[in-house]
Design a protein that fits this description.
The complex is a heterodimer of chains A (322) and B (527). Helix content of chain A is 78%, strand content 3%. Chain A is built from 13 helices and 2 strands. The termini of chain A are close together. In chain A, 34% of the residues are buried. Chain B has 3 domains: 144 residues, Periplasmic binding protein-like II (D-Maltodextrin-Binding Protein, domain 2, 3-Layer(aba) Sandwich); 100 residues, Dipeptide-binding Protein, domain 1, CATH 3.90.76; 224 residues, Roll (Dipeptide-binding Protein, domain 3), CATH 3.10.105. Helices cover 28% and strands 22% of the residues of chain B. The longest helix of chain B is centred in the N-terminal third of the chain and has 22 residues. In chain B, helix 5 packs parallel to helix 6 and helix 8 packs antiparallel against helix 10. Chain B has 14 helices and 22 strands. In chain B, the strands form 5 sheets. In chain B, strands 1, 8, 9, 10, 11, 12, 13, 14, 17, 18, 19 and 20 form a 12-stranded mixed β-sheet that branches. A 4-stranded antiparallel β-sheet of chain B has the order 4-5-7-6, with helices on one face. In chain B, strands 2-3 form a two-stranded antiparallel sheet. Chain B has 527 residues and is α+β, with helices and mostly antiparallel strands. Classes of the chains: A mainly alpha (322), B alpha+beta (527).
Chain lengths: 322, 527
């Protein structure tokens, strides 16, 4: 088990090194050269030259890469071309944004997992009934719904019509809330983006859980448990659901990449000041250092999540452990 | 029983959020007056040297004062400078003696001198320092600028005066991002209420001029234009800094919301690369110009909200209107006529004219992110030019790649669609067209010594009427040379909650972002 984890950890580290190199060169070979954008700026030649030198763009590419790697190892992500949240230090800005993204995505994911599991189990239990058909159709509709459209529907319903929630942002602008009032203000702003992502992901989990549960419920060991006289509830919680969790963990891990990507869209739609919105902003401004920082953090988070999933498999499924 | 408990918990949660939601608006007699403006992008550097966007330029007017203010038509009126005079190449400004920065230090002529001297390093403001050779401060309230020429654009300056004692003390002022901003303007940046997409300013209680009538001015970032319009409709925001055309139409039909379109000092164009063997011939450029149906383009690509233009200057009173005998309207027959006369014939009956074995077939480069609305323009050009025997092929590419391709001196491109923004000085934008070997940057390798001469006159003339005459003359040369076909003057779209607010007035360039702090200091809640 320990050897297996060490091996996985080694490969995760190697992947990170490749990601760092790819990250650096990707932004320099893709269209959208910063020097061209600076050249187009409405300012004097002297200022343009200073900006290019400040960004280190006058140095050879390999030298830029060497400096980048050296800085990264010392925890220096560099300075962004632009200023965000009152700072242009890449690490400071990213660290400031991570909590917002993590809280939002964690809540959305948790909501989706719990609701998806419940719906999936109910559907499998009530297979071929009207309830199953209704919930399955609903899940399929939600699963295939475009995020931006669903977000606009939520805004129209809850903001414009019912006027319960704000249309975007994190806190009410211009207000100084403290303590509980501040937490409530934060939650009030978070509910809609959380619902939007949670409900859309819920469909995916419900469908997966339903089909896995249907397979499991027809297995011999379930029939044996029934024959032994165990209650349905006992069979579900002690035999069916734990076994159905293995494919669910895979789906959840794979979804992490999707939700990190989805965060860009979600946070932009609800003006939620997280990592996704930062990436969108940095991309619009062609801010290489900031984009590199965001991509690096996202990649590390993804690799880490996959590593943890691999480790988790060992605990869930004894066959892998052996 | 369990179900009931769950229901009670759910109801309690809904009630808490509903009450919190209702608590935001407020309106009690003693309550803080907050004016909330929705913007489409968030916080940026507010350093005098690093600031880049027009929005931050607007914020600078809240935190700092300039020598001059401007009326609705951009005529200079006294502000920090109570009076000024121009003698030869020297400009003398006499300053108020009652202005203090927010830290209590007095604003003097030394601050003005420092600002202009350091301004050469500022992204936004370096253009104002051009052709200033030296600055003299005979006393605390007098500052004299010795310039390389008459510098008639001196009265179109909107340079925020920064405190010398603060900036001079920084190790590297060019990269310093101040958190606590010391200025002399009507508002003070409030870092405690800023962040998370919000930028807040509180009124400066010691301001020497008109006291703002609102306590807190807030700019809130909205990345989703649809959500911004909904927020405007329900009163969550009080104004929108810039609207998209769809939202503009939507809000125009909303009661209590005043929407308006404003000039933007810029223009959209179709550029002709003068280094291309065929496009070097003015006849072909004129022919394509005749094939450009600007009315259709304005209607289809700009939602009908743009003005027809014949020159690069889009400042009120300086727009060029060619005489009837030289004006080129949409006329495909005329295009055919001039091409026939110049010997461009379709000899092989493929629908494309040719001369000396060279076909009138051109590639039109556009920026891909604008394709959704520019496709109507491109299709119209393709269709109309085809009727004149000119083939146009469309190539949409990433905007920076377009700029990497379509630049002065590169012969390997032919046509492109792009735009330029100007400034309050009507002469400024003409510098694009100085001969490209001498620093012009129209990107089409334009070069005409006659234009260069008139451009020089624009910046030598001290008399306003004389200067206007040279600006017109310069535009007439450009119209005849036709390095660009001017597609339109695009507009800035803004709105304000007129049910709730009063005291503002429309400038020709907007309610906000108009290089004046007037509306920010005069807007107030309706009684």
């Amino acid at each position: 088990m320990g050897k297996r984890i060490l091996k996985k950890f080694f490969f995760s580290c190697v992947t990170i090194v490749f990601v760092v190199a790819f990250n650096f060169f990707l932004f320099r070979i893709m269209p959208g050269d910063v020097e061209t954008i600076i050249a187009k700026a409405n300012t004097t030649e002297a200022v343009k030259q200073r900006l290019i030198e400040q960004a280190g763009l006058h140095r050879p590419l390999l030298e830029q890469f060497w400096v980048y790697m050296k800085d990264l190892l010392t925890g220096d992500f560099g300075e962004a071309f632009n200023s965000y949240d009152g700072s242009s230090n890449v690490l400071t800005v990213i660290m400031g944004r991570i909590p917002n993204t993590v809280i939002l995505l964690f809540c959305a994911e948790l909501f989706a997992i719990i609701a998806g599991l419940i719906i999936g189990v109910i559907c499998a239990q009530k297979r071929s009934t009207k309830l199953d058909t209704g919930l399955l159709s609903g899940s399929l509709v939600l699963y295939s719904m475009p995020t931006f459209w669903f977000a606009m529907l939520l805004i129209f319903l809850f903001c414009a019509t019912l006027q319960i929630f704000p249309t975007g942002g994190i806190f009410t602008p211009g207000r100084h809330y403290y303590g509980m009032a501040k937490i409530l203000d934060y939650l009030k702003h978070m509910i809609l983006p959380m619902l939007c992502m949670g409900v859309l992901m819920m469909g995916c989990y419900a469908i997966t859980m339903r089909s896995t549960m249907i397979n499991i419920l027809t297995e011999d060991y379930i029939n044996t448990a029934k024959a032994k006289g165990f209650s349905t509830r006992y069979i579900l919680f002690h035999h069916a659901i734990p076994n159905a969790m293995i494919p669910m963990v895979t789906i959840i891990a794979l979804n992490l990449a999707a939700i990190l990507g989805g965060a860009i869209q979600l946070e932009t739609l609800f003006s939620w000041q997280g990592l996704g919105q930062l990436m969108y902003d940095a991309l619009n401004r062609r801010d290489y250092p900031m984009l590199q920082g965001c991509f690096f953090i996202s990649a590390v988070a993804m690799i880490l999540a996959n590593f943890l999933t691999d480790v988790l498999y060992g605990f869930i499924d004894p066959r892998i452990r052996e | 029983m369990k179900g009931k408990k769950l229901l009670i918990v759910l109801l309690a949660i809904v009630m808490v959020f509903t009450f919190t939601a209702c608590g935001g608006g407020g309106g009690g007699a003693d309550e803080e007056v907050i004016f909330n403006i929705a913007t489409t992008n968030g916080e940026e550097s507010m350093s005098f040297f690093k600031a880049e966007s027009a929005k931050v330029e607007d914020w600078m007017h809240l935190m700092y004062d300039s020598l001059l203010e401007f009326d609705e038509n951009y005529n200079a009126v006294p502000h920090l400078a109570t009076s000024w005079e121009n003698e030869g190449n020297d400009w003398t400004f006499h300053l108020r003696d009652d202005v203090v920065f927010s830290d209590g230090e007095k604003l003097t002529s030394e601050d003005v001198k420092y600002t202009y001297e350091m301004g050469v390093n500022s992204y936004l403001y370096s253009i104002y320092t051009e052709r200033i050779e030296s600055i003299e401060c005979p006393d605390e309230t007098t500052v004299i600028f010795h310039c390389a020429d008459a510098k008639p654009d001196m009265l179109y300056q909107s340079m925020p005066i920064i405190p010398k004692h603060i900036w001079e003390a920084q190790e590297d002022p060019l990269t310093w991002d101040p958190e606590e901003i010391v200025g002399s303007g009507p508002y003070i940046y409030d870092p405690s209420a800023s962040g998370n997409g919000v930028t807040a300013f509180i009124k400066n209680p010691d301001y020497w001029g008109d006291q703002p009538k609102i306590d807190t001015l807030v700019f809130t970032e909205y990345d989703n234009a649809g959500a911004m319009a909904q927020a405007m409709k329900i009163g969550e925001v009080d104004a929108c800094y810039s609207l998209e055309k769809t939202q503009y139409d939507d809000l125009a039909n909303t009661e209590g919301v005043e929407v308006a379109s404003f000039d933007a000092w810029g223009f959209e164009y179709l550029g002709y690369n003068m280094l291309d063997e065929l496009l070097a011939d003015k006849t072909i450029r004129h022919a394509i110009d005749y094939c450009t149906d600007v009315d259709y383009i304005i209607e289809m690509s700009y939602g009908g909200i743009a003005d027809v233009g014949y020159g690069p200057v889009n400042n009120k009173g300086f727009e060029y209107d060619p005489p009837a005998d030289v004006k080129r309207g949409f006329n495909i027959d005329k295009a055919n006529e001039i091409l026939d006369k110049a010997g461009y014939k379709d000899t092989d009956n493929d629908g494309i004219r040719e001369k000396d074995g060279k076909k009138l077939s051109f590639e039109l480069i556009t920026a891909s992110h604008r394709s959704s609305w520019q496709q109507a323009t491109v299709n119209s050009l393709i269709e109309n030019c085809a009727k004149a025997g000119i083939e146009i092929k469309w190539n949409a590419m990433e905007v920076a790649t377009m700029w990497d391709t379509c630049y002065d001196g590169n012969p390997d491109w032919q046509l492109n669609l792009d735009g330029w923004g100007g400034t309050m000085d009507p002469g400024y934008i003409l510098q694009l067209f100085i001969s490209w070997e001498n620093g012009g940057y129209a990107t089409v390798a334009y070069s005409n010594p006659e234009f260069d001469k008139v451009y020089g006159e624009v910046f030598a003339a001290t008399d306003a009427a004389e200067r206007a005459k040279y600006i017109e003359e310069a535009q007439a040369i450009l119209y005849e040379d036709c390095p660009y076909t001017y597609l339109c003057y695009d507009k800035t779209l803004q709105c304000i909650n007129s049910d709730k607010w009063t005291g503002y007035k429309p400038y020709s360039n907007g309610f906000f972002g108009n290089l004046s702090a007037y509306n920010y200091t005069h807007i107030e809640p309706k009684a």
